[in-house]
Structures are given as C-alpha cells and as structure tokens.
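ARCHIVE CARD
CATEGORY: sequence design from structure
SOURCE FIELD: tokenized fold
FIELD CONTENT:
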C-alpha cells in the first residue's frame, strides 16, 4: 500500500463529507462542458488530540485564493472554492470587520428600511453584480475544510469529479498545506494536561499528494501548484524541482515578504516574473488578476 493510500485508510472520512461529495459530483457534471477550476485556499490544521483543543496551524488568511476565485469567475470559469473554514471568500473578502456595516445607513424617507450610502455604491455595486451573476449561473461552489484530513479527502474527491472535464479542468492549488501530521493512532483522545509535563510530539511527513493527483486522479487536467519560500536564492531551484518530480504544468513561486507584489511563473520551458508597478499598487490592482490572466492564457493553449 502506498503512503497516500495508507493515509486515507488510517484517516477515515468525517461527518458532512457525503453531502459535500454529492455537491461536488453535481457541480462537475453540470459544468463538464465548460472551463472549470478548483481553487484551494487557506491553511490546514493538524490536531494534537482526537477531541481537538490544540492544533498546529499553517499561515494563510486565504487572500490569494479568494481573490483568484473572483477573477476566474469574471473570465467565465466555473469555480470550486475549497477553502479553510472562516478564511476569506470571494466577494465577501472585501468587507472585513465592520466595513460592510459602515457602508449602510437608515433610510430616513422610508421607516424600517436601510440603504447603501451614496459614496459606497461605486465600491459595492460591481462586487454585487459579479456575485449575482455567478450565483445566477451556478458557477460557484464553496466547500469548507479545517483539518489536513478534511482538505485531502475533499481534494481527492474533487479531483475524481473533475476527471469528466478532461483538459477543461484546471487545479489552482493555493492552499497552505501542512508538511507534517500526527497519525490517528498516535493522538491522545482527550486534551493534553500540562500537569503531566511537556508532551513529546512525533510528527510524520504528509504523503506527496501531487504524485497521485497528477498521474492518477485527474491526469488530463491543467495543474498549478504554489511554492512559498523565505529565501529567494532557492525559490527557482525548488520550483523547477517540483515540476520534474510531479510532472504538472506550472509552479507559481513567491517569497513571503513580497508575495503581494511579485511572483515567478515557472514552467518546464522557462520562467518569468509577474510584478505590480508602483502605479498599479496605488491604483489598487491585485497581483492575482495578473496571475489568473496569465494562467488562463496558458490553459486555453493547453486545451487547444
């Protein structure tokens, strides 16, 4: 039995999986003749107890994934958004904390009604129009996860569903996935107690899921992975190594400190930078708009 098969056999599915499995199947079947993308977003948790109180978390607010999903929708794609529960989502990402409430006011002319402040209509209207269109055309499916196990089960199921879409399917794997986990049979059942002293925790490597994903689960799809580093000197080398190892199409490389303004697109043939100019940054342009535009061009060429 392979490492990834062993992972799934020892980490069984969970409540709610069957319902989302059905939603995934229906969504892919409905959109099998259209361009469709699976966008993964946010970080995974690794529980330290079966009845989880403590866990190891991966850094990610879901900014890149949620923004990218919006741009894919704008270009007519159907989008499966596999996201960390309570992380940023397409459309609602624009309204953090009290921002949305600050856009509203009581309608003094009609008692009991509220309205959008005139100065906020320009901001809210295009977001609302895009959201309504995506909902009307049923081109957005939201699937939440929290733990590493939930993420991998949904990733595998979504990949199976996307098989019928062939080359029209793109996988945009932007989630921050843990490299380590604790097997179920090594987890304590209840909350670890501090009066027993410091715990000894042994982490195991997570199976390299890109291997079966590219070669078995969805072999015809256009697969894009992300490589985040803090050392710029190794980014290109590690990105090229990933392409050689997993045989997918593109790696989007980025450095933690500059990820919002600069990425490197790495393919088997070449590599090049995508950057935001100072003018674009001042104008509120998001680098995800450029990344998605570039990848859609490549995806169309791949389909043809």
């Amino acid at each position: 039995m392979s490492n990834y098969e062993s992972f799934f056999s020892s980490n069984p599915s969970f409540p709610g999986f069957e319902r989302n499995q059905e939603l995934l199947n229906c969504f892919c079947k409905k959109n099998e003749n259209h361009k469709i993308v699976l966008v993964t977003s946010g970080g995974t948790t690794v529980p330290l107890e079966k009845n989880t109180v403590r866990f190891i978390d991966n850094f990610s607010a879901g900014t890149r994934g949620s923004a990218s999903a919006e741009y894919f929708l704008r270009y007519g794609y159907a989008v499966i958004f596999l996201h960390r529960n309570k992380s940023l989502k397409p459309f609602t990402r624009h309204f953090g904390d009290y921002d949305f409430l600050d856009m509203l006011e009581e309608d003094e002319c009609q008692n009991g009604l509220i309205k959008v402040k005139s100065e906020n209509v320009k901001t809210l209207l295009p977001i609302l129009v895009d959201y309504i269109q995506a909902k009307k055309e049923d081109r957005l499916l939201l699937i939440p996860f929290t733990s590493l196990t939930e993420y991998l089960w949904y990733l595998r199921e979504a990949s199976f569903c996307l098989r019928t879409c062939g080359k029209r399917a793109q996988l945009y794997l932007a989630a921050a996935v843990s490299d380590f986990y604790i097997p179920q049979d090594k987890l304590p059942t209840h909350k670890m107690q501090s009066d027993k002293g410091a715990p000894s925790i042994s982490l195991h490597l997570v199976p390299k899921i890109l291997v079966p994903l590219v070669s078995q689960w969805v072999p015809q799809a256009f697969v894009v992975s992300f490589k985040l580093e803090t050392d710029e000197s190794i980014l290109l080398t590690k990105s090229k190594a990933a392409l050689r190892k997993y045989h997918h199409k593109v790696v989007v490389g980025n450095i933690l400190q500059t990820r919002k303004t600069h990425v490197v697109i790495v393919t088997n043939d070449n590599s090049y930078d995508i950057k935001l100019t100072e003018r674009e940054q001042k104008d509120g342009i998001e680098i995800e708009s450029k990344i998605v535009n570039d990848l859609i061009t490549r995806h169309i060429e791949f389909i043809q």
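CARD ANNOTATION: The radius of gyration is 21 Å. The chain has one domain: 3-220.
SHELF: design records, drawer C
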